[in-house]
Amino acid sequence: MENTMKAVGLYRYLPIDDPESLLDLTIPKPQATNKDLLVRVKAISVNPVDTKIRGPKDKVEEQPKILGWDAAGIVEEVGENCTLFQPGDEVFYAGAANRQGANSEFHLVDERIVGKKPSTLDFAAAASLPLTSLTAYEALFEHLGLTQNKSENVGKKLLIVNGAGGVGSVAIQLAKSIDLTVVATASRPETRDWVKKQGADFVIDHHQDFAPQLQKINMNEVDYILCLHSTELHWTAMADVIAPLGKICSIVETEKPVELGLLKDKSATFTWEFMFTKSNYQTNLITQHNFLNDIARMIDAKEIHATINQNYGPINAENLKKAHKQLESDTTIGKIVLENFA
């Protein structure tokens, strides 16, 4: 049995209430070659991308599809061209959407998109970080063009739409670590409390127009906007409050066209962030290794903290179904993790 491993996967893409939407499986254990690490997975977390990929469609897989793009574990083997890690290293990473995911006892991942696990966190807390922290980090520092030089951020204002989700929870902390003024949106008492706990200076409601709410806190405009929910729904409100020469970044695909012309008069910039672009197109991979190591450094220095909020227990189909169902309710606060294979 040494050449097999436990995993949770699917053959058909089904609603989460279907008994076959996620299955407990035994599959071959892979081997590390080239620049791949073979990681013994200790903990995973679940993200909206998992539910979107699993969502109902006609496709049927001949070999099981394994989901899961957030993991922490221990390097078991290294490929012959690896230079960054060695067996026994504790790591965390989000992986690549065009490869098998990490909902398995062992997982292959390119070492260039892997970081050293924060030494001050256990595996469960570490697994809550990679996808959301990479997304937030790339959005703020690559796409919005922010600098870690705090003196350049004095007086600059960032609006985060949907601050209580996984990415928002990290983005608030990263923005506060470089002295930005952060306005986060949240609509329920528990989510408002959560974003304040992450460090948001002000909280407004995304179910209401942004401009009058910002005016009540003496803001007529914001320099940057990070949109983490319903891009087209908030498009007009964002265009209304973005400052001249300001920048808007979104991570949420549009379901309908948006009027890009609303940004022209202000010469405002719109940009996308998609964490899997680099692995999908095999470009700038090493930046994700560097970014994750910086995140780990910030965690260990207590500049930011992990956003784990619920631990659903062992990694199996039953618990993963619960996690997917919770995510699909669109009411998740922070991150859901699972750890160890029972």
UniProtKB/TrEMBL annotation:
Occurrences of domain Enoyl reductase (ER) (ranges): 20-338
SUPFAM superfamilies: GroES-like, NAD(P)-binding Rossmann-fold domains
Cell compartment(s), UniProt: Cytoplasm
Molecular-function annotations in GO: oxidoreductase activity; RNA binding; zinc ion binding
UniProt keyword annotation of Ribosomal protein present: no
One Pfam family in the UniProt entry: ADH_zinc_N_2
Record keyword Transport present: no
UniProt KW keywords: Cytoplasm, Metal-binding, NADP, Oxidoreductase, RNA-binding, Zinc
Family matches, as InterPro entries: ADH-like_N, ADH_Zn_typ-1, ER, GroES-like_sf, NAD(P)-bd_dom_sf, Quin_OxRdtase/zeta-crystal_CS, Zinc-ADH_QOR/CCCR
GO CC terms, sorted: cytoplasm
Quaternary structure and interacting proteins, as annotated: Homotetramer.
UniProt family annotation: Belongs to the zinc-containing alcohol dehydrogenase family. Quinone oxidoreductase subfamily.
Name assigned to this protein: Zinc-type alcohol dehydrogenase-like protein
The organism's taxonomic lineage, starting at the top: Bacteria, Bacillati, Bacillota, Bacilli, Lactobacillales
Gene responsible for this protein: qor_2
